[in-house]
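User: Hey, my collaborator sent me this sequence without any context and asked if I could get a structure. I don't really work with proteins. Can you help?
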Amino acid sequence: MLKDDENQHLINEVPEHKADQEVLLDSAPTRKIVCAVVPMFMGYAALVSFQSDIKDRLGIHSESSDESYAFGEAVSMLFLAALVFRLLHNVFLSWLSPRQRVFFGCALMCLATGTVAVVYYALRWTSVWLAYVIYVCGGIAIGTFEANLVSSITPLGHQTKKWAVIGMPLGYNGVSIGGFFLFALAPSNAYLQGGVFGATSLLCVVAACIFAIAVPSDVSTTIAQGTEFNGVSSLAELTASLREWREWIAPIAPNLVSLFTDMFACILASTVALYVFKVGNVPLVPGRCATMPYNVLQGVFNICGFLGDFTARTVAYSPPSWWPTSLMTPNGNTLRCLVFTCTGLALCLCRVAILSPIGMLLIMFGNGLMYATTTRRIDTVVPWKYNIIAVSLWLFTGDCGSYIASTLTTPISNAVGRVASCDK
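Assistant: No problem. I've predicted the 3D structure and written it out in structure-token form, which is a compact way to encode the shape of the chain:
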């Protein structure tokens, strides 16, 4: 088995044939890549999971006020900006290489989370309109970062990508789970809330440094010279790639549907739960006395989501002998993901607190299963010159689902209704 520092001789040889490409993809893992991924998804989680805390910080307490709807629109800009940049980073950032776009994403996420910490918590500004800027920056950051990181590390092999894929739920849930439990210990502690955003901002700088070490510039540059690995770099090239859709869209078409559905359910379930159960002591079952503090319930909710996501990503990317082979096929993966997703969403929206964590576990198991099998499938069956555009389009469809769900959060939350508090 190759060691991390022995991958270089494979990287420096451009894989001209399918067999050579498969040898390269089976090279030893660069595990440190996980540390470059975690902080970015911590920032993404902070902006999504703690939106109600930011909203409270701005003094917005009525769900039906104009300010509440304006803030909801600002949050939806996170998903809209990510959606636009999933594909058009190839055009708007054509002057940067995929590796440089990763650094660009880190810088914007650092700016977004740092602005929340400094302006909203340290300086105590209450401008709703600044939230639009913050969430747009966060959306551009994650939309640019994810596709380019996934493609930039393709020459380092399947096992390196496995560690990057695992880093996504680790970062997201590290903040969403840890944050809610911290806030449960000190509810409404502005210093603690601002500290989470500030620490996340600093860690994004660390992420950029680790990426620079883990993925040297010659990794993507050398591969790009022989395989057009840098993808499209103009609107004309993007259009040309779309005309050749049979080579890279057709093989992943079921996965596009799967991600759209799953991300719609994931965002809708997680954001509606923030508002439907936002009372001091949440009744676990309507009409019963058993309760759980809101922040603890959200922590349990996110733990279940993490367990489903992490388990599926781990076993699907490196399936053990007992793992059903049907879950590794595009159609089998899509159908099962839809079953997990729809069942989980129904449980999350039924206003029964004790069922919502189970629903999130099912949704995120489908998410992790689909994510790991799709990234591996793109590396295996899609020609490398279409790697970035294939990953970008796939993530773009997911962001379409996320954006639609985010725009429906406030009206659906109002339609479902907040549960009755059991505060003494």
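In plain terms: The first strand starts at residue 281 and ends at 283. You can pass these tokens on to your collaborator as they are.
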